[in-house]
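Batch job 17 of 40 flagged for manual review because the log was empty.
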Amino acid sequence: MGNNQSSNRVILNDQDFWQLKKQCKENDNELFVDNTFAANDNSLCKNQKNKNIQWLRPKQICEDPKFILDESSRHDIGQGIIGNCWFMATMANLADNPKYFDRVVLKDQNFDADDYVGIFLFQLWSSQPSNAGEWVEVVIDDRLPCTKDGQLIYARSERNSNDHEKQKHEFWPALLEKAYAKLHGSYDDLDGGDMNEAAVNFTGGIPEWIDSNTNDQREQDKLFDILLKASDRLAFMGSAVKEVYLKGDQNLQGLLTNHAYTITNFVEFRSLSRSCTTKYRLVRLRDPWGQSDNEWKGEWSRNSKKWNNISAQWQKTLGKKTEDGEFYMAFEDFVKYFGKLSICHLKPGCFDGSGKKHFSEISFKGEWKGQSAGGYPISGSKIDLEFFNKNPKFFFELRSSKPQCSVVISLMQCFENRQQDNKNQIGFTIFKCGDITNNQRNEWIRIEKGVQYRIKDVTKKAQLTEGKYCIIPYSQNRGDSGDFLLRIFAEKSWSLSKITNNEESSEMEMMPGIQYIPVRVYGDGLTKAIPEVRNTFTLENHISNVFVGYSYDESMGLKKENDGDDVHYTIKAGAKGTLSISVTIGNENILGSPYEVNVA
C-alpha cells in the first residue's frame, strides 16, 4: 500500500492514516487507540450492551492473524449476531470483485511485526450529506468485540467452513464491518437495511430495483435476459423471499424469510442428455450465514437428481459441489419464491442497456428545507403549484451533432444517521428549457411511465436531444426536509456541463415560467392529467371513462394535436385570457374544482 497522500482525499474525523501510523511508530510502535469509535457499549448493538463483552485485538484472539489469507472470496463471509444480512450479502459481492475490493479494502495492510501498530484504513463511497458522492477514508483500530472466551460476536471469516484455519485467522471481514459501523455511528446502526445501500457505499454505483413477480413466460424471458446481462457486467445483486411467504406455515424448501441472499451467478446453457439437447436456466445464490440449513432443497439443489440430467463436464463447470450456504435453483423457482431484486450497476451503460459505452458525470448537492421543501404538486385533490415551483432546480446542458444521447439520472437521499425515521418518498421531473424570448415553451420530458417512489433512491434513464435542461427533485409531501445528491450521467461523446451562471440561465427560469401539474389518480382510472403551463397543456389519458372539460375565450385560438398517448392543446401565440380545466371521473372532479390558467 503506497503512501497515497493526494490533495483530493476526504478523511473522516480528520484522522489521517499516514500521520497517525507515523506517530505510533515514532512512539515505540505504540498501538493505535481510536477515541472517535470507543471500545465500549456505546459502539455495540443494544442487545449486546452490559453483556461482559471484551474488546480484543486479532493478536489476542489467535497466534498468527492475517488481514487477507490467500485471495478474497465470497466464502470468506460469515455473519455475526447483528441483523445485517443485507450488508454481509453485499460484502460477498465485493469479495468477488477485485477492482472494487482493492478500492475499499487496501490490501497491503498486515499484522507483521515490522509494520503493525493496530491501525487499519478502508475507503467507502459516502451517502452522508457532508461528503456525499466522495470516497471517504475511514481509520479504525483493530479492537473487536468478543465473547468472554475470545470469540468474535460480529462478522468473521467463514463461519461454518471446514477450513478452520482460515476461519480463525483471517480478519478483513470483521475490520471492514467495524469501519462501516464507524462511518454510520455504531454497530447498532447496521441492523436492518437494503443490499443496494451497501453496494453503493462499496462502489459508487447506480442502484436499481426490479420486481420479479410475474407468471407470464415472455416477461420471465425478458427478466432473465436483463439479469444475465447484469451478471455478465459484474453488477452487485441480491434478493429475499417474497413477503407473501411471511404469513402462515409455508413450505419454502429450506429458504429463510426476512433474510438477504447474495446472487452470485446467472447461467444459461444447453446439455446433451439421452440423445436430445435441453436448455437450462439456473441461478446461484449464497446465504451470508454460510449455513447449509438455509439452502434451497428443491430442484437443482445440492442433492437434487436434476444434476444427473446434464453432462459431467457441465457439472464440473457449474460447480455442483458448492461451499456451505451456496446453492443453485431453476430460474422458474427463483421467480416463484424471490421478490424484489436489488441490483447495483457499476457503470451507467450497464443500467441503461447500452453496454460498453463510456459516460461522463456531473453531480449536484441540494436540500429540501423551509420554503424549498415544496413537495409534489398534488396534495389530495388540491394542486399546490405555487409550492412545487419552490423546489430546488438544477440546470445542465447537452451538446453534440448526434440526434440523441443516453442519459441516466439518479437522485439519492443523504442521511447522517441511516436509521433515522424521516426518510421521504422522492421523485424528480425533467424539463427541456425553451427560449422564452422566442416564445418557446418549456417541454416536460417523459422519462418512464409509472414513476415509482423509493425511500432512498430513484434512478431513471432517458434519451435526450441537444439543449438545456432543468431537473426539479421533490419529496412527496410539502415540508418534508432532507438532503440529497443528484447525479447525471451522459454518453462521453456528448458535452455534458452544469449551468450555474445566473445570466446564462435567466432565459429558462422555471419560476414562474413552467407551471407543470401532474394529476395522479391511483387504481382503475386516469393515469395522468397534465395541465402544463405557459401556452400549452397536455392530457395523458389511457382510458375511456375520463372526461376532460375546458372553457376559454375563442380569441385564444385553441388547437388540438394528437401525439401517441398524449393530446396537446396549444394556444395561439400572443393570446390572452383564462383557460379553465376540469378532469372528471364519473361525477367527481378530481381537481377539486376547475383549474384556471391565466395565459399572458
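Reviewer: the log was empty due to a logging misconfiguration, but the result itself is present. The chain has four domains: 10-198, 206-345, 355-509, 517-600. Unflagging and moving on to job 18.
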